[in-house]
Amino acid sequence: MENIYVLAEHRKGVIRDTTWEAIAAGRKLSSELGVELTCILLSANAAMAETLSTEAPRVMVVENPIFETMNSEAIIKTLKEVLKPSGSYVLLMGASNAILDFAPGLSVALDAALATDCFAAEVRNGKLFASRQMYSYKINSLVSFKDSERVVLTIRAGSFPYAPSDAVKGAIENVACPIDPTSLRKRFIKYVEAEKGDVDIASADIIVSVGRGIGDEPDLDVFQSLADTMGGVLACSRPIVDKNLLPKFHQVGTSGVEVKPKVYLALGISGAFQHLGGIKGSPLLVAVNKDPRAPIFRVASYGIVGDLNEVVPVLNEKIKSLKG
Amino acid sequence: MNILKPADAPILGAPAPAIAFIILFLSVAFFCYVMFRRLDVLRKAAPDPRFSNISTRLLRALMYGFGQWRQPRYLGAGILHILLFAGFMILSLRSLTLIGRGFSPTFHIPFLTGSVGFAYESLKDYTVIVVLIVCLVAIVRRAVFHPKRYDHPGTAGHEYEAYVILGLVSALMITDMIHDGSAYRASGVCGEYHWFPAAAFASVFMPSNDPATLNFLHVGGYWAHILFFFGLLNYLPISKHFHVITAIPNVFFSNLNKGTIKPVRYGTVDWMELDQCGVSDLTGFTWKHILDFYSCADCGRCSDNCPANTVGRALSPKMISVKARDYAYENFPVFDKTSKDPAHEKRLVGDIITEQEIWACTTCGACEAECPIFIEYIDKIVDMRRYLIDRGEVPQSLQKPLQQIKKKGNAYGAMKSKRAAWTKDLEEFQVHILAEGEHSDLLFFVDSCGSFDPRIQEIAKSFARIMARNKLDFAILGQEENDSGNEVRRLGEEGLFEQVSGRNIEAFKARNFEEIVAFDPHAFNAIKNDYPEPFKVIHSSQLIYRLLSHGVMSLNGEYLGGRVVTYHDPCYLGRHNGIYEEPRRVLKSIPGIQYQEMTRSFSRSFCCSGGGLLLWYENEEEKERMGERRVKMAMEIGAQVIVTACPFCLINIEDAIKTTGNEGKIEVIDLVELIDRSTS
Amino acid sequence: MNIIVCMKWTPDTSEADLTVSTTAKDIKKDDLDYDMNDWDRFAIEEAAQIKEKVGGKVTVVSLAPEESEDMLRECLARGADEAFQIWSDQMEGGDGYAMASVLSQFIKGRPHDLILTGTLAEDDGAGQLGGMLAAMLDIPSATLVSKIEIKDQKASFVRELEGGLYESMEMDLPCLIAVATGLNEPRFVSIRAVRKVTSIEIPNVGIDEIGIDVGKVGQSGARVEIEQVSLPPEGEGAEIIKGKPEEAAARLAEILKEKGAIG
Ligand SMILES: Cc1cc2nc3c(=O)[nH]c(=O)nc-3n(C[C@H](O)[C@H](O)[C@H](O)COP(=O)(O)OP(=O)(O)OC[C@H]3O[C@@H](n4cnc5c(N)ncnc54)[C@H](O)[C@@H]3O)c2cc1C
Ligand SMILES: Cc1cc2nc3c(=O)[nH]c(=O)nc-3n(C[C@H](O)[C@H](O)[C@H](O)COP(=O)(O)OP(=O)(O)OC[C@H]3O[C@@H](n4cnc5c(N)ncnc54)[C@H](O)[C@@H]3O)c2cc1C
Ligand code: SF4
Ligand code: SF4
Predict the structure, then answer these.
(1) A273 CA: nearest ligand 1 atom
(2) In which residue ranges of chain B is pLDDT below 70?
(3) In CATH, which of 2.40.50.140, 3.40.50.1220, 3.40.50.150, 3.30.429.10 is domain A201-323?
(4) Is the ipTM of this complex over 0.95?
């Protein structure tokens, strides 16, 4: 591979964390392959490249108002042109919902092999390997890419810890926008915020779930705030719905909603069969419960035995500070 | 003086018999026409074979129709109704006599002459008083105390009907009293008032020496009575009081097959080939079911006992009858033949009887056990569900478990191959899996819940231990077992029921055993009553009772430790299969047991909210959980242990103990577990 | 309106204890029950609902062996007009790219205004087929779509981003939409509903009939190769984080961060 590219993801004018983790993965591969890392930014505002240039030795920028948002058609067409001159390369991106929209199409346009949602990548004897999960996270699989000249990898959040390295002062290279935005067949209209009420816990990746252990007159804002901090949604066990603390569609369980999250934080939930029956796949399950013998600990990956009223506020603050 | 007889008194110059004839003719003609129109709807309805076992049916009609056997379940109202009904029976002869007297002043019913006639006249007079008093009490009861069960939520103008009827009946009594009272006054016999209290009482208000007034009262009272009588007769089939006419036939035609569900359509070889499956409109119901709608007396006993109604779900069985009857009267009217554009009509199933109502039923059977005239609800609800299933309109929460049963034979989505995995925890012995062609005395049907729900597995283990300890030769089907299909059928997915039951039947037939035993009453019920081929099946409580009565097992009271125990009758054991005694006898043979019956027990038991697939269904309207209600009922009588004999009752009640904050104060346990723990 | 729905036939692994096959390239699948990919249930339902609204024809296609017939029949019961099953032994070992190549070749030959797929397959979970297929057909596409409206040769839709944020967009037809679960309420399919469509034939199409070069399918057409699969190391029960509540909470926050559990 002659090049390593990282495509930056941004939303509402801000570079997203997924970019930094993709850069971390890129750095690892670039040292293993001994080639330079280039960060690509498609943006309506070329100034955003400044922040990237402290992290990557080279930044390519295509500026055009169409890149205000991550329009998949515009991105695919642009990258196809921009990367045409490059020979063989690995293109890295975060595995976010925005990127999921174009990574597969991009791989076809670039005539590249694709592995999505990778949690590890390495080069052994000059050959690239990536690790991903299958069967609802129950199986790890190690894949390689035959003799593909080009490979696109999307990187699962949290897989490549990122540390800022202000040392670099990358060169910023402006590239003319190769496409005519008016010819696009896909158009962005607007962002829509989900109303607080109508979150869909069934498709949420991160779930903060509360049970009877939160007490009879809990301050739900505390838990909502934790869910917001974690970028997840608030769910609950049946007694919480019974007490009218949360509407029915927040209830996880056999007679509630079936969920398939990546992370499930169970606060004050005992782990009854009817509750666990609604959690599919094998999420990272974390339980906070004051009873060390609560059945939830048998299925959880991590647990804290303690009073959730003491644990949750600290946890929230700590996560906020880690997010920076 | 000699009083003027009505037949002798011309009216506006016309001879009385002519008037009597005209009234009789018009009334009877109108009545026959209305009845024809009403019954014509039954002719359009789906078939229903209800002419078998005539002797059983006659007996039922005698006992529950004429005998009013179920009325005293509500003591006060029941006694009132029995009195009223008896009054009606007695007074019917009087009415015939009076009709005849319009033609001939001396008309009488052939055998009612001489002293018999006198005795009847006297009895009639007492009856008139009783009926009048009953009517007044009933009016006061309704007007002043208005019991909730008489309400008609969501429909207009039904309450007044009762007053119309009570008023008409009272008017009949009063005009009868005026008619007879005036004759009594005129005859001047005063010593016989104890024979004719009504007449004597009425006469008190009449002048003694005014023949004109007395004649007027006598003749006028007569014609008023006749008009009220025919008015009432013709009001019956256009009001809720149709039951006066249809109730006894309805009891005669009542369902004799307890515990099972009617086929999709009687007389069809392959129901799958039908254009439509299930009931979407009035005439999709069977004729008997429409007769049910006609017959409902709006007494509200069904809804009063319906657990779904009690906890605030949309369902009220009575209102299903009321709404369907309204629909029938509106869409098959007596006169107006110009039918309205059906496209703008409300659909009976979906709009008038809503999906929420249809799914809210637990099929507990409390309504049917209560109804004095044997109106059926479960079959109707299942028929409507069949329609919704056919259209794919099934609550999302129920779709998953149904699909899982289709694919894997159990609602838990567990792999078939793990069906016998629960037996691995039993260290003392191994549970034999019966292979094809093998024999064992007992085939233990574990069902999906016992195989896969960790809490219910405990009951399965206890039961296996009891059988092993008593050296019974038993085995299970293992992988070859499928869900019993009890709930699948009751949710209206008949095709899936045929699939799972068919697989079980195949597995049964390929093996040799004396009887099947199940601790889950739902499985027990399905195999006993739903499976098209007969298999001998008993419930765990019956097996344990057998062991106890053979004296091979002895119990001790250590586990109960003197706590107060009550027994919760599971719907599918009690009401649907009449097994009330065995579990109680088993309990009572535990030494030193402190047993207390709950107010709602035996056929009045209160459903825990249902088993099987209903565990997956949650009703959002409900304000309280049925299980919580049940726990409170047990706490009220000071019980510390609720014993049940159904795994789903156990799950629901165990959860309710937790949610009502009564952990540690009261415990629920399955009979099988209790016996396991009470044997040394 | 010609709607084509791509269905994947996936093993249900939710309740199974998975084991790795002897080749270590896949899991043992003999014991597993296969069924419609859960996401695709929403795709076929959406197709049926769009057809009910604007008319048209719904075609279902699955690259899957013969045993998948039940699934395709279920699709017919759910409202599809026709269903095709595409399989040849040469397709064995194909990755998303190889599969998309077959599908695109098949679809090219027939009218299509809207192609619906699920966003992810439950087994591979790569979320790649839709986008690849659209690129091969040179039509616009979108994934994780939670609401669709078809009007005036355009599809207006809403797609899900993270943390309760959605983007509202539109595309010209023809286009491909990969749906998110929950965008509709799939109907129930009874045994009878499936029986009613037994007479509809489900053609088995071989790759030779599609006219695709054998080198482009299966293992040889794949760009990704599975080297090895393994079970993630599993701890017995939860690892209890010790310490005072504040310390434990702080440690937990770090763990969550490390595991990428903070969105
Ligand atoms: C038919 C049926 C269907 C059902 N369906 C569902 C369903 O869909 N979803 C569902 O969730 N349930 C369902 N249930 C209920 C289920 O059985 C359990 O009762 C329920 O899940 C328990 O909820 P919980 O864990 O919040 O409460 P509990 O079991 O009471 O657990 C509370 C936990 O909080 C802990 N705790 C208390 N205080 C604190 C504190 N200060 N700090 C930390 N920990 C604390 C306790 O140790 C305990 O473990 C169903 C039940 C039935 C019968
Ligand atoms: C090296 C390798 C070998 C493989 N070998 C095989 C094999 O031998 N047999 C096999 O069946 N699979 C095999 N697979 C899986 C194969 O990748 C998938 O069938 C294909 O990649 C679909 O992609 P996906 O799982 O990423 O689906 P996703 O992209 O996650 O699926 C999204 C949507 O695409 C549609 N879709 C996906 N697959 C199909 C399909 N087959 N037919 C119709 N629509 C579909 C569905 O609508 C689905 O919801 C292999 C994968 C790899 C990497
Ligand atoms: S069967 Fe039970 S739940 Fe259903 S209507 Fe009758 S009483 Fe109510
Ligand atoms: S169905 Fe029976 S119990 Fe119910 S209201 Fe009618 S008559 Fe009374």
Answers:
(1) 17
(2) 189-191, 337-344
(3) 3.40.50.1220
(4) no
